[in-house]
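We emphasize that the prediction below concerns an isolated chain of 295 residues; any contacts that depend on oligomerization or on bound cofactors are therefore not represented. The input was used exactly as deposited, without trimming of termini.
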Amino acid sequence: MLDYKLLEAMAAVARLGSFDRAAKELGLTQSAVSQRVKLLEQRLGQPLLVRAHPIRPTQAGLALMRHQQQVAMMESTLAASLTEEQDDSHTPVRLAVNADSLATWLPAALARLYRDHGVLSQLTVEDEELTLERLRRGEVAGCISAHTRAVQGCRAHRIGALRYRLMATPAFADRHFTGGITEATLIGCPTLTYGRDDELLNRFFARHYPQVTGRPPHHQLPSSQGFVDAVLQHMGYALLPELQVSEALSRGKLRLLCDDHIDVPLFWHSWRLQSPVMEMVGQVLSAEGKQRLIQ
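Result of the prediction step, given as a token string:
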């Protein structure tokens, strides 16, 4: 029989990457958290954490993190079902989501989850290519990912796609693209990227402008709204989600540089063994996706 206080401490250290941050989250001393982890490792007869910087779980630790995440969700659901004042009950749910979803269609779904079901969203924001790793590690109960294939023990279904188009301000376009979209203009003027893992523009080039090789000079801005604001401030051209900038386009603040686009598919991933709360979360996200995303 597992001692879930010990398991909770181990999972917090693995998820947050340090004993100190885990202690602050759990309201314990760092020594108490360390003792709980050591006791759990002694009882199971194997290491559960790699003491590196940051701390990370072993394979056994990963399995226990996933188990702890599911148990915590089921306990939260049970507590809500036993509460007499159902309208006053709240259920925290950890999710990993991509920044562009959070900046476009996702807030309406999160608001509905809170308003109708008392769900308190606790979000980790990553690139849509990386959110699945958070689920695999047991750090979250569900994620929105660009990957169609589910990890072991999970299931996935498509909720739609975000459509991206190449845009700039009219002033930037008039300065840098007077001769149209060519290899020289695309590679010669600045663009924007979220970070080192952002490959969306390269995939766009490969599909529509294969003659473009290399990466243009670029600003790195790991913020969805900051990304749009930088384009509006004439700092570069970029692929932007249509949903996020439809008003700016209609008002002439932004200009489409070409008719080509690229769609990023989004999939909802969650554990096969689900609580009623997570079933409902998936249903709400799917319904919102059908209304707002490309199908």
